[in-house]
């Protein structure tokens, strides 16, 4: 399992929280339901700490989860789990007998009201965020910015309505202080500092080349060299009037680090704007590189499967050096206008005996299928394309041999 280190990290954090709440001593005797409710609420706060930490795009997390697409997947899972814990916490609190709830001060009553507001806020925002495929990326991103508000309410609620003294330097108090502080700062960092402080590679667009009907290749000249590996991607901000300043991810298709090339295909509103209006000398800022595709590791023989613009991570490897291992590339696309870099791939196959390429135009032939395809022993499979395609081919390939090694990069960051 590629994300094993990240999964272990989540289990350790949530497990530590469970144990600390279980063995903590309340300031007054608690009904068993009240004690369980506190534990569930504590786990919810810890869960949201993990959620906000996973949103920071830290390189360490990229490595632990084997790619940012996996980081965001577990970010989503933890948000759903934490929301369920918040709701369960509220339901349990309602079932605690009134006589066992103890005396409430005006401060604890206010924190209880904030807790309820936080719960409703999380429910609304997370449910909207889960409908991401129906939202424009810009709207989805704005919704995420509001998550800090219910999280702040939840922290206040945890500290001032709890029957445990979380302000004391007990193991639970220290753990809660650390996780809530890091969680809050992670959210604040993404809101205020990330876009200004962590795009350290500056440059400008020095060439624009048409690549088929709906794609362009940008040459970006940087002020300093970016140390990227083949198959990685970067987040790019374009400083041009009329274009959104928010960063978007693009794979590096080639380059020496001082100059890099990225290929942009029209897939949504933002890429449509870039395609039609981007200009030479537009200033850019880059954050990265990210991605854990590594074509040098693993078995000698490889199978590559690319869907549409998913060809770009493979190009960076092919254009950097001649290959000396058997590689078969299956490149699927819809229409010849979308077969970007086809001429290059054909030429490469003609001049390199180790490389074979198969072009699948789904407007002219059946869709690519691996139902009856047997992956040879000691072969590694690399997949890059839309998430649905990656899942579909992974399932087909695993149905014949569950032991084959598959590495992938899927286009989904929300």
UniProtKB/TrEMBL annotation:
Keywords: 2Fe-2S, FAD, Flavoprotein, Iron, Iron-sulfur, Membrane, Metal-binding, Oxidoreductase, Transmembrane, Transmembrane helix. Pfam families: FAD_binding_8, Ferric_reduct, NAD_binding_1. It comes from Lysinibacillus pakistanensis. Residues 198-296 form the FAD-binding FR-type domain. The chain crosses the membrane at residues 7-24, 36-54, 74-92, 117-135, 142-160, 172-194. This is Ferric reductase-like transmembrane domain-containing protein. GO terms for cellular component: membrane. Coiled coil: none annotated. It is a multi-pass membrane protein. It is found in: Membrane. The lineage of its organism: Bacteria, Bacillati, Bacillota, Bacilli, Bacillales. PANTHER family: 1,2-PHENYLACETYL-COA EPOXIDASE, SUBUNIT E, NADH OXIDOREDUCTASE HCR. GO terms for molecular function: 2 iron, 2 sulfur cluster binding; flavin adenine dinucleotide binding; metal ion binding; oxidoreductase activity. PROSITE patterns: FAD_FR. The keyword Chloroplast does not apply. Its cofactor is FAD.
């Amino acid at each position: 399992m590629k994300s094993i280190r990240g999964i272990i990290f989540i289990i350790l954090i949530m497990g530590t929280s469970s144990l600390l709440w279980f063995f903590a001593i309340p300031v007054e005797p608690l009904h068993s339901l009240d004690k369980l409710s506190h534990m569930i609420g504590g786990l919810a706060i810890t869960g949201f700490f993990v959620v906000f930490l996973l949103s920071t795009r830290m390189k360490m997390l990229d490595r632990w989860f084997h790619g940012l697409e996996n980081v965001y997947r577990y970010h989503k899972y933890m948000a759903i789990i934490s929301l369920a814990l918040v709701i369960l916490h509220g339901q349990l609190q309602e079932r605690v007998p009134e006589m066992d709830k103890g005396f409430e001060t005006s401060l604890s009553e206010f924190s209880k009201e904030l807790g309820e507001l936080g719960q409703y806020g999380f429910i609304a925002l997370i449910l909207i965020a889960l409908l991401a495929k129906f939202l424009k990326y810009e709207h989805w991103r704005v919704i995420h910015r509001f998550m800090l508000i219910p999280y702040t309410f939840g922290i206040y609620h945890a500290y001032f309505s709890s029957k445990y003294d979380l302000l004391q330097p007990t193991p639970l108090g220290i753990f809660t202080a650390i996780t809530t502080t890091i969680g809050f700062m992670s959210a604040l960092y993404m809101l205020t500092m990330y876009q200004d402080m962590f795009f350290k590679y500056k440059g400008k667009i020095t060439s624009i080349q048409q690549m088929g009907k709906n794609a362009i290749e940008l040459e970006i000249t940087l002020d300093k060299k970016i140390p990227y590996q083949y198959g990685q991607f970067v987040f790019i901000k374009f400083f041009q009037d009329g274009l959104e300043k928010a960063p978007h991810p693009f794979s590096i298709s080639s380059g020496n680090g001082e100059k890099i090339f990225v290929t942009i295909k029209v897939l949504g509103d933002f890429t449509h704007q870039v395609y039609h209006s981007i200009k030479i000398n537009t200033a850019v800022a880059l954050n990265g590189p990210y991605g854990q595709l590594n074509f040098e590791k693993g078995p000698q023989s490889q199978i590559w499967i690319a869907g549409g613009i998913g060809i770009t991570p493979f190009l960076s490897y092919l254009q950097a050096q001649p290959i000396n291992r058997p590689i078969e590339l299956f490149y699927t696309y819809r229409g010849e206008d979308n077969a970007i870099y086809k001429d290059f791939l054909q030429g490469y196959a003609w001049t390199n005996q180790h490389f074979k390429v198969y072009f699948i135009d789904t407007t002219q032939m059946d869709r690519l299928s691996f139902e009856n395809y047997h992956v040879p022993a000691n072969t590694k499979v690399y997949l890059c394309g839309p998430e649905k395609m990656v899942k579909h081919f992974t399932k087909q390939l695993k149905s014949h041999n569950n032991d084959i090694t598959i590495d992938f990069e899927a286009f989904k960051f929300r």
